[in-house]
Amino acid sequence: MAALHAEGLDPPSPRAPQTLAELLERLARVRRERFAISEEEALRGVCGIAAAVGDPATGEAVALGIVCPAATTEAGERAAIARAPTPGPPATAEAARSRPSPTPLSCSAIATRTSSRAGG
């Protein structure tokens, strides 16, 4: 990271990490918590939640990201979505194949709930 940002960071907003030390601290927290929340760091009025999702049976990994307007969701709601429980890894590959997939997050339900609260 130090080599990548040898000339310093160019933060997209005052809410984004401003120094290399802040960025490294944020990355350490993301690795520890296994998700990231952006509170208007890249774009004013836009928040995001992201996590890596993996299939222990195949080793396949993908990224899941949810973007939402800051005006219609509260920080606590975004944190609750990010920390939503997920099933633990199965004991065997056979168990992974036979276990039903977890219920996906319902973005439409989130949008409906926040839209009705915002008067829309």
Q: What class, by secondary structure content?
A: alpha+beta
**Number of helices, counting only DSSP H or I runs of 4 residues or more:** 4
What is the C-alpha radius of gyration, as a whole number of Å? 17 Å
Instruction: Characterize the overall form.
Output: flat
Counted up, domains total 2
Helicity range of the residues? Answer: 25-40%
- Outline the low-pLDDT stretches: 87-120
Mean of the pLDDT scores? 74
**Total beta-strand segments:** 3
Within the largest sheet, what's the order of strands?
Answer: 1-2-3
Order of helices and strands: HEEEHHH
**Beta-strand residue fraction:** 15-25%
Sheet with most strands:
3 strands, antiparallel
Distance between the termini: 43 Å
Can you offer a commentary on this structure?
- The chain has 120 residues and is an alpha+beta fold.
- The chain has 2 domains: 1-33, no CATH class; 34-86 and 101-120, no CATH class.
- 32% of the residues lie in helices and 18% in strands.
- It has helices at residues 20-33, 75-82, 93-98, 107-117; strands at 36-39, 46-54, 61-69.
- Strands 1-2-3 form a 3-stranded antiparallel sheet.
- It is flat and about 40 Å long.
- 5% of the residues are buried.
- Mean pLDDT is 74; it is low at 87-120.
Key traits:
alpha+beta; 4 helices; 2 domains; disordered C terminus; about 120 residues; flat; single chain; 3 strands; three-stranded antiparallel β-sheet
